[in-house]
Each structure stands twice: as C-alpha cells, then as structure tokens.
C-alpha cells in the first residue's frame, strides 16, 4: 500500500463525513463538497493501486530479466565446459593416432629396408599399373 492509496482512503472517508453533515444540517454546499472529496479520494486511491501494480510489474519484469540472464550465463558456461572437454578429448585422440601412424610408418620403413629388392619390385609394379590405367582412359 502506498501513500496515494492511504491519502485517497482518508479523503474518501472525510468526504463521506462532510456529505453526512451536510445532509443532517440540510445544507447543499457541504453535501456537494463532500461528494467531490469522496470522488477525489476514490480516484486518488485507484491511482495509488495502479501505481503499486505498475511497480510490482516493473519489479517482476526486472527479476524475470535477471533470471533469464543468469540462466543464459549458466548455459554459456556449460557449453564452454563441454566444448573444452570435447576439444581435450579430440587432442588426446589426435596425439594417440599420431603416435600410432608414426609407429606403423617406422615399421613399414623398417620392413622396406630389410627387403629392398622386393620393395623396389612392388613400387615398380604399382607405378606401371597406375600408368597403364591412366593411359587406357585417354
């Protein structure tokens, strides 16, 4: 309850009193002034209720916006953490596969060094086959 609601209620009661006094005494002026005070008091009280409601809506809207911002920051942080975890896992897999390729490449190289004649014959056969396939397409 705000000041306008309280003052409007008091003004309304005071207007009722003036109207009643005017009615008892039979005088029209106090009755009219009392009726005016009643209407003004009701209007002021209604203005106070509207103002109070507008303040509550403003506060609720601000709270809603703050809550949405907090949720947004929380989602952003969660996505960032998940992204880092995926990135770390991908980097670890990359290192693993890099070591694996390197180890297998060394093994192939060692085998080729042990069997130089066979390796040379295989490379020559592969080159001949690729050349033959490419020449047939023309």
Regions with little confidence, pLDDT below 50 for 5+ residues: none
Helix content: over 70%
The succession of helices and strands, N to C, reads HHH
SS summary, helix count: 3
Instruction: Tell how many strands the DSSP assignment holds.
Output: 0
Dominant shape? rod-shaped
Global mean pLDDT = 93
Q: How many discrete structural domains?
A: 1
Class by helix and strand content?
mainly alpha
* Rg of Cα set: 46 Å
Distance between the termini: 94 Å
Percent of residues in beta strands? under 5%
The largest sheet, given as strand count, sense and whether it forms a barrel, is: none
Structure description:
This protein starts with a helix and ends with a helix. The protein has one domain (3-136). The chain has 138 residues and is mainly α. It is built from 3 helices and no strands. The protein has helices spanning 3-25, 28-114, 116-136.
Layout of SSEs?
Elements: H1 3-25, H2 28-114, H3 116-136
Helix pairs in contact: 1-2
Region (Disordered): 58-81
Protein name: CsbD family protein
Organism: Methylobacterium thuringiense
Which descriptors apply to this entry?
single chain; 138 residues; mainly alpha; 95% helix; rod-shaped; transmembrane; YjbJ_sf; membrane
In short:
The protein has 138 residues and is mostly helical.
